[in-house]
Amino acid sequence: MTEREDDSGKFEFGSVFLAVHPTEILAVLRLRDLLGLPNPKEIDHPLMKTPYAAITCLPGAVTERDELLEQFLAVVRQRDPQVLPVGL
């Protein structure tokens, strides 16, 4: 993101960090992992060549309960059980 884009307020991202963090790509890769689907070994895109492109929290590494997240997921499952199966 250039300084001009940042100053204009018309850029897609609200911060420089969001402009260089591949949030959506990492989320899709993580979901594919959880569903047992294969992921590409490498994604040839500039965003995926940054230090932010690594999934650093492996499954089971987060052991603290997040009550707000659990409440949110319960509502999601209640509204559409096929969107988020129990266990994910």
Task: Provide structural commentary.
The chain is built from four helices and no strands. The protein has helices at 3-8, 16-20, 23-34, 67-79. The longest helix has 13 residues, at 67-79. The protein is extended and about 45 Å long.
Short description:
The protein is mostly helical.
Keywords:
mainly alpha, 88 residues, single chain, extended
Distance between the termini: 35 Å
Point out poorly predicted stretches: none
Largest sheet: none
Radius of gyration: 17 Å
H-E order: HHHH
Number of strands: 0
Could you say which structural class the secondary elements and strand pairing correspond to? mainly alpha
Number of helices, where a helix is a run of at least 4 consecutive DSSP H or I residues: 4
Overall helicity: 40-55%
Shape from CA axes?
extended
Strand content: under 5%
pLDDT averaged over residues: 79
Secondary structure topology:
Blueprint: H1 3-8, H2 16-20, H3 23-34, H4 67-79
